[in-house]
């Protein structure tokens, strides 16, 4: 009965485990997954949406400003002759009769207004603001594209580093297996007196060395997998990758055409800064010019003070009922003369920002051109290394077999045999690195050119 209860308890757990198998990513699917799942890319998407809403907000400046307010107050109504400034709203406007003595009897009153302020002419300031907001939307789109491009390059590089670390772990496991075979054979030969006792100590040390190399490879593999998981936006390492093709074959050699880096996402993003600087300068120039507005308003007042007799009433209904109505329409012109001085300095400051962004663009072009030259050089050298690596491996295998046979025949010493042992292990590693370096060189070429299709098109050929 207890076993049955335990089994029933484990069924949901087992079902959950079976319903969530490890994800298996090809390199292309990893790129696609990271594009939609990585938090920083989502943040850039939100920034783009923000810019789109700000564009809509800037267009609202074309519309008139319509405001209404309504007040019901209880106050005294003493007044004196004279004027005052509102002083940032701290001066309270008082409307009341002038009396011989102050009357502190409060009365009810009301005040309602409807006001329209329509900026009908401003020398294109609103148009410039809308243009600036639209360019910020374009910049946010370019920023998103650039971030997706950079992140996909980083994911692809991390993927390639992970699969080579996986391959190296397998090679070190193979190396350890060879070391165990040699170890067991030497120990048996020493025990039977066919080999000197020093050989047993030597193979023990070499076996430990092979184990250490395997542990180091596993550590590197674990680090690379953790980094790849983070770049994919995963909180765990419950995934697998396709390693077969990239370790065994190399991409085809490309005919590298002369390309312009002006289409690089990073360059287009820097160029957008210049456009925004220019539109900001237009806003500054237009902000110092006068503006013409249409004004219209209507208001109604109610008071507990009778207009004819000046008698006060404390009745709420009599006080808040409207007694008088007014309207006003007109055109106003506003121009801050001293703003010309500030505007001129703001324009000069923005001009320097433009020059700064222009120099940063030139600097970025230099860096990308250098990176492109380096990428093409590395691609050519990596392809040559990939051609030589199999030759080295075949020779290393033959040398290892001959060295093992010579040692077995007593024609060479154990250290001489292990020279071939090390050579074989190194050749196997170099073979895997050579293929991987071609892929990474191709990726660097794509990253420098700004066209990831240079890299992904080769994935489809595998």
TrEMBL record:
Belongs to the outer membrane factor (OMF) (TC 1.B.17) family. Pfam families: OEP. It comes from Mucilaginibacter rubeus. Transmembrane segments: none annotated. Residues 1-17 form the signal peptide. Residues 123-150 form a coiled coil. Keywords: Cell outer membrane, Coiled coil, Membrane, Signal, Transmembrane, Transmembrane beta strand, Transport. One of its GO terms (molecular function) is efflux transmembrane transporter activity. It comes from the Bacteria. This is TolC family protein. InterPro entries: OMP_efflux, TolC-like. It is found in: Cell outer membrane.
């Amino acid at each position: 009965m207890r076993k049955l209860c335990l089994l029933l308890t484990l069924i949901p757990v087992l079902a959950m485990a079976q319903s969530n198998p490890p994800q298996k990513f090809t390199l292309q699917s990893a790129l696609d997954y990271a594009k939609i799942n990585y938090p920083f890319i989502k943040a850039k998407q939100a920034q783009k949406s923000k810019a789109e809403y700000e564009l809509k907000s800037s267009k609202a400046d074309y519309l008139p400003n319509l405001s209404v307010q309504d007040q019901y107050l209880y106050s005294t109504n003493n007044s004196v002759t004279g004027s005052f400034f509102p002083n940032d709203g701290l001066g309270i406007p008082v409307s009341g009769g002038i009396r011989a003595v102050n009357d502190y009897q409060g009365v009810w009153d009301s005040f309602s207004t409807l006001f329209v302020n329509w900026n009908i002419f401003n020398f294109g300031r609103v148009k410039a603001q809308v243009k600036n907001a639209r360019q910020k939307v374009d910049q946010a789109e370019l920023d998103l594209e650039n971030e997706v491009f950079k992140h996909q390059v980083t994911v692809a590089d991390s993927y390639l580093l992970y699969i080579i670390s996986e391959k190296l772990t397998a090679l070190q496991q193979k190396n350890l297996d060879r070391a165990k075979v040699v170890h067991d054979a030497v120990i048996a030969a020493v025990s039977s007196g066919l080999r000197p006792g020093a050989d047993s100590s030597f193979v023990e040390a070499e076996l430990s060395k092979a184990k250490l190399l395997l542990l180091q490879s596993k550590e590197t593999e674990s680090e690379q997998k953790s980094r790849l998981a983070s770049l994919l936006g995963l909180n765990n390492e419950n995934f697998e990758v396709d390693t077969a093709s990239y370790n065994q074959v190399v991409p085809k050699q490309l005919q590298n055409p002369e390309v312009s880096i002006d289409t690089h996402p990073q360059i287009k993003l820097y160029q957008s800064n210049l456009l925004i600087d220019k539109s900001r300068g237009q806003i500054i120039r237009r902000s110092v010019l006068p503006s013409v507005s249409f004004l219209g308003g209507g208001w109604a007042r109610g008071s507990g003070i009778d207009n004819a007799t000046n008698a006060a009433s404390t009745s709420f209904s009599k006080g808040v009922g409207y007694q008088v109505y007014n309207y006003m329409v007109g055109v106003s012109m506003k121009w801050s003369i001293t703003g010309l001085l500030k505007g001129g300095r703001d324009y000069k400051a923005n001009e320097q920002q433009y020059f700064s962004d222009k120099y940063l663009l030139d600097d970025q072009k230099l860096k990308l051109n250098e990176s492109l030259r380096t990428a093409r050089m590395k691609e050519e050298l990596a392809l040559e290394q990939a051609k030589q690596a199999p030759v080295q491996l075949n020779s290393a295998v033959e040398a290892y077999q001959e060295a093992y046979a010579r040692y077995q025949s007593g024609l060479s010493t154990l250290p001489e045999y292990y020279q071939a042992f090390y050579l074989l292990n190194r050749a196997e590693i170099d073979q895997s690195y050579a293929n991987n370096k071609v892929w990474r060189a191709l990726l660097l070429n794509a990253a420098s050119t700004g066209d990831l299709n240079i890299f992904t098109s080769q994935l489809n050929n595998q």
